[in-house]
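REQUEST FORM: STRUCTURE PREDICTION
Request ID: SP-0412
Submitted by: Lab K.M.
Chain count: 1
Length (residues): 245
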Amino acid sequence: MDLPFLNAYLEAIGAPSFRKGCNFAAAGSTILPATASSVSPFSFGIQVAQFFRFKAQVQELQAKTSKYDKYIPPQDYFQKGLYMFDIGQNDLAGAFYSKTFDQILASIPSILLEFEDGIKKLYDQQARNFWIHNTGPLGCLPQNVAKFGNDPSKLDELGCPITACCGYGGPPLNYDSRIGCGQTKVLNGSSVTAKGCNDSTEYLNWDGIHYTEAANQYVASQILTGKYSDPSFTDNLPFLLKLKF
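STATUS: Completed
RESULT:
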């Protein structure tokens, strides 16, 4: 798309430019409010609150001086801008290890209500253009196959032996929950290291949980065609993504 990556709100040090937009995403964040055991404290509600603070700070600066105009978005961008969301996977992925399947299904309405509440708050702040992405498939992640793959009742007829690029244990999964990508630990009396593969473009999965850059780029290239959106916008706003592999 030949567009720059958006600078992160949480790294607003050293006068980064937010003129093209701002990224409020945080690794490990969830839609539901964070708890003491959460990976990230920056749940969706916190991210929405951070946006409100960002908008207020922009308006405050614009009212005082034009000195920072090259770093901050013009006022009309808040209404004209595209608000993109890709969140919710951690709500489900984490639940697989602490809840029953029925409990996970029962939690989905509350997750959606929390998300809806955040969207409404943004709409009330003049946001009008929303692009909401669904969560990615979880069942074939090496982490989940390693955990649940020995139970035939949890498998379908298709199967999915996806190998992690960076991990330990070798095929078919190259994943061991005891040692993460890049770590060195003593397992079974020997010092071992979870190393990366030689060419990540040949793999779909990076570390048992996350996709490789190549896989993400392919998925993005399909999303940006607009044909998988509802409603589709293929004819109205086509994007082209130059694949590097």
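NOTES: Helices lie at 44-64, 77-80, 89-95, 101-124, 142-148, 213-223.
Reviewed by: T.R.
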